[in-house]
Amino acid sequence: MMVSFFDQFASPLYLGIPLIAIAITLPWVLYPTPSSRWINNRLITVQGWLINRFTNQLMLPLNMGGHKWALLLVSLMIFLITINMLGLLPYTFTPTTQLSLNMGFAVPLWLATVIIGMRNQPTVALGHLLPEGTPIPLIPVLIIIETISLFIRPLALGVRLTANLTAGHLLIQLIATAVFVLLPMMPTVAILTATVLFLLTLLEVAVAMIQAYVFVLLLKLYLRENV
C-alpha cells in the first residue's frame, strides 16, 4: 500500500476524535509552574530569565500602550516554538502545518492591531494607505495597492509559517526514505545521505524557532504602526 508523503500532515483521529486538540494543549503541561518560594530551582530560574530578556527585547521599540500586548506575544512565541519543536519528534503531529490553525492565530491578532489603530489614531492609521508626497494621478492606484497589501498581511503570516514547516517536514521524509532505499544497495551513499539528513534536522530545529520568532516579530511591527 502506497503512503502519500502528505499523509503526515493529516490530523490524526482516535475513535473519530481529532487529536489536534491534545497536540495544542500539551505544550503548556511541559513548562514548570513558578512557585511562591523566594528561591526557585535552576530550571525555573533560567526559564524566567529567558522570558524576561525576550520580553524586554520585544517590547523595546513600543510605547507604553503596546506593552499591554507583552503577555500575549510572549505566550504566543513560547507556544509556537514548543509546538514546532515537538513536531520534529518521531510519530508526532505538528499542528502549525495546518493553514487553518495559523490563520486562526494571524487573522484575529492582525485585526486587533488594525482596530486599535482605527480607534486610537484614525488619521495616522489611514495615512499609511497613502505615502506622503504621492503625485495626484497615482493617489487612487496607491490607495488600492496599500489596501490590498494591508489585507494580505494575515494571509502572509499564516502561509509563511505553514509553508516553511511543511517544506521542512517533506524534505526530512524524502531524505529519510532515500536512506532506507539506498542502505541495502549502496551503504556508503546511504551513510552520506544520513549525514545530510542529520544536518537538515538541525536546520529544521533552527527554522522551527526562527519561524515562531518571525511570526511574533511581524505582529509586533503591525502593532507598532497602530499604537
From TrEMBL:
InterPro entries under this entry? ATP_synth_F0_asu, ATP_synth_F0_asu_AS, ATP_synth_F0_asu_bact/mt, F0_ATP_A_sf
User: Is Cell cycle one of the keywords UniProt gives this record?
Assistant: no
Q: Which Pfam families match?
A: ATP-synt_A
Q: Does the keyword Transport apply?
A: yes
Membrane-spanning intervals of the chain: 12-31, 69-89, 101-118, 138-159, 171-199, 205-223
Q: Which GO terms describe its molecular function?
A: proton-transporting ATP synthase activity, rotational mechanism
Question: Can you name this protein?
Answer: ATP synthase subunit a
Q: What species is given as this protein's source?
A: Tor putitora (Putitor mahseer)
